[in-house]
Amino acid sequence: MQLLPDQLPVMVLDNIVIFPLLAVTIRTGNPRDIDLLLERREEAELLAVTSRQEGCERRPLDYDSIHPVGTACRVTRIKEIGSDQIEVILEGVCRISFLRLLSRNGQTWALIAGYQETGQASDSITQMLMESSLNLLKTCCAAGQPLPENAVGLLDRITSPGHLADLITLYLEPDLALQRRILAQVSIRDRLKLVHQLLYNRLRALENGSSAAPGGPQLQFPEHKQVSDQNEIDELRERIERLEFGASNSRIVLKELDRLERMNPASPDYHSLLHYVEYVADLPWNEETGENLDLEAAEKILDEDHYGLEKIKERILEHLAVRQLNRELKSPIICLVGPPGVGKTSLGKSVARAMGRKFIRLSLGGVHDEAEIRGHRRTYLGAMPGKIIQEIKRAQSRNPVFMLDEIDKLGRDFRGDPASALLEVMDPEQNHTFVDHYLNLPFDLSRVLFIATANQADPIPAPLLDRMEVIQLPGYTEEEKKNIACRYLLDRQRENHGLEQERIVITDEALDGIIDNYTREAGVRNLEKMIGKIMRKCAREKVAGRPVMKTVTRRALNDLLGPELHHKELAAARSRVGIVTGLAWTPTGGDILFIEAALMKSEKGEHLTLTGSLGEVMKESAQTALSYLRSVADDYNIEPGFFDRHRIHIHIPSGAIPKDGPSAGLAIFLTLLSLAGAVNADHLVAVTGEISLSGRVLAVGGIKEKVLAARRAGIRRIVLPRENLKNLEDLPREIRREIDFHGLETIAEAVPLVIPGLGNTSPTARQQYPGGRRKTARPSSPPAG
Ligand SMILES: Nc1ncnc2c1ncn2[C@@H]1O[C@H](COP(=O)(O)OP(=O)(O)O)[C@@H](O)[C@H]1O
Ligand SMILES: [Mg+2]
Question: What is the pTM of this model?
Fold first, then answer.
């Protein structure tokens, strides 16, 4: 029932225990705590509060020194006291147990789990304990126990036994050790028993004349009164009245404010309602930035930040121009699709800069829960707005460029379908009245410029994809990478490392070396990292007062970057029987892969063995290839019965990396044909395409990435489905000049292109596959066909 992250930053409070649903005021002058509190308040996020074990107060923070049960708290209000102290109200949300401490960005975080309370209110012993505790409390009060004015009335109305026990503890202020025991008690009945005993002891003490609470340091009574400070409510009312967000919204929120005013500040709902009204008051209902767009200036900025990508920049500018000319026009959202590091996210940032708008990036990877997008209703314990509204509030602008990053990684599970929530966010027909469950008021998202990104378009839920215009960024050629490195990355990294004054150049050869041997990617992310690494070394020299290297040569790479990490995946050194070069799409770009087949005598049993971690679809396409080959064996002079007397083993290295997809079908067929015909397949030809049993070649995905990989590997000819020829249009011209492309409709057309010798040798010769294995570099992610 609790929306709890599994990690939270830790705050240690040794002299107070915070119970769930209760708010306390604390003061602190500790700069670390102040930073943490300000940050958490800003993000409307939780904190994990606990205290140290007795005697460990001075020890450095580690798991053994803290109490393993604490409270997840929300920071609801911060007030500066003087210049170096702040006063905050912490509102307990729920009990948590600390599983482990972690260090994150200089802060201590904890791996936490929500506490499941055991026991329920309907249990008769619990009921009895509740009743008796209340009676005891009233007797205590009569005997002189100080209580806040309306405490008894409030307690009378509480139905949750666990909450009752917590609240009585707060009122009686026993010593901290007992408070911690009560906090740590998950069984509700046992917790009530502890509280009952506490009440009993307190009554005895009061009757014996000692009025003060026994033992323990005296706690300050939580200063709830200060929150209800009329001034602050009035101030909030003024702010709400000033917001121009529609009469009906205004009415609703002012009504909530009236309710707040009448509410008892000690009541559990008070702080959540206060948080809500403040949240509404803080939202940028009308704030906008960067209205008029100068397209020429925008183009300049896009060029300043990114090399090449002409078509994409043009498309973006068109999109902006259309939006500007006709605001009412519902233009589709741009979705940038391509492998990592090709500049999708940074293009989004650039668009924001060009338009003078704020930039927001929301990573959708691993978002499973609809509530993360659309928020939780306020009746929910620990409710919060969804990420969309949170980010808009943080940006303080209602027209930011909002990047929905990695939209293809959006999850879905029992907690609802985030894609449908996202649909409402993105849909221009609906998003001018987007209702977040927490806000429960329509917020106008129609001025937000959404840009989505994805590695692949296929996994994007269809209704979302329908509303987007996909722009492909296939990855860079080696020349493009070098240009990006010289003109952009080097300067950027020099600046990042305070080396603007140094004239450092990286030679052409050194760049080749970095690209070929230290990175293996379609984009330039690792290339940038490597350049950064070199600059870091230079910066260190400079700081040490030594002369900084002026020219980075290929020979220096080993010293600067360590041993080479990759070897360029090359086409096979020579043509062989039973090996065909295939092309794979991988999430990091394209790759070439070798399909190998070997032949064994076999009189009976299974005829096809497949290895190399192949997925179901790939296995099926191997079956299809074999069946089709058997059906046309005659055409290629394969002797009758050949396939009955042999077992065929197909292997696709690297064996441990999972591969799937239908696009290797044609390559597998050709491998089998080369094997059965004992004729070499040309090692400089790469093949991609799905096949059908009727002998047709069907279109496949990822063509551009595959072509770039083939070129990197030194392939001269690519055989692909005819339907895919159109995908080649956007490729750099030099590639189309260097590689010979053949678009096919039928499998038969592929044979002379890949196995030119077929028919010249004895078709029935049964040559054993030579069996040597080549070294192949491992792709960093699973390739798919
Ligand atoms: N065409 C380009 N020109 C200049 N820098 C680029 C280009 N493409 C990518 N980069 C740089 O490469 C890095 C990685 O890009 P990023 O936007 O994170 O990629 P993605 O979001 O596609 O994974 C960024 O620093 C980006 O500026
Ligand atoms: Mg990115």
Answer: 0.62
